């Protein structure tokens, strides 16, 4: 579709954009809460911002984040911390 749009000289921002992936609710594995929706939205924003910052946005066909139902363990000072785990998906395609 992008190639057809380019040949038709479309100047729409949606022509260059990554197609909308699955909706937020299906990208949250486990309980869907306002807090978890907020975490996923923030992760999605950061991911897409980094793709832009590293000039990769136009090379990617589809990209999105998924909030997993597990927590990772880290250390802050002398204490253990348990934080959310996000999976990132970025796909390139020439015929999708």
Just name the CATH architecture.
2-Layer Sandwich
Describe the oligomeric state of these chains in a short phrase: single chain
The total number of structural domains is 1
Stated plainly, the CATH topology is called GMP Synthetase, Chain A, domain 3
| Number of beta-strand segments | 2
Query: Span between N and C termini?
Result: 9 Å
Largest sheet strand order: 1-2
Number of helices: 3
Form type: elongated
Using the coordinates above, name the CATH class.
Answer: Alpha Beta
How would you characterize the overall build of this protein?
It is a single chain. This protein is an alpha+beta fold and about 100 residues long. The protein has one domain (about 20-90): GMP Synthetase, Chain A, domain 3, CATH 3.30.300.10. The protein has helices spanning about 1-5, 15, 35-55; strands at about 60-75, 80-90. The chain has a two-stranded antiparallel sheet with strand order 1-2. Strand 1 and strand 2 form a beta hairpin. The longest helix is centred in the middle third of the chain and has 20 residues, at about 35-55. It is elongated, with a radius of gyration of 17 Å. About 5% of the residues are buried. The model has no long low-confidence stretch (mean pLDDT about 85).
């Amino acid at each position: 579709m992008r190639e057809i749009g380019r040949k038709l000289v479309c100047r729409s921002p949606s022509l260059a954009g990554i197609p909308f992936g699955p909706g937020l609710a299906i990208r949250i594995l486990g309980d869907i809460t306002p807090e978890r929706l907020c975490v996923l939205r923030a992760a999605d924003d950061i991911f897409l911002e980094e793709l832009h910052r590293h000039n990769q946005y136009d090379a990617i066909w589809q990209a999105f984040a998924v909030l997993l139902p597990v927590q990772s363990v880290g250390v802050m000072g002398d204490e253990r911390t348990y934080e959310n785990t996000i999976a990132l998906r970025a796909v390139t395609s020439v015929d999708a």
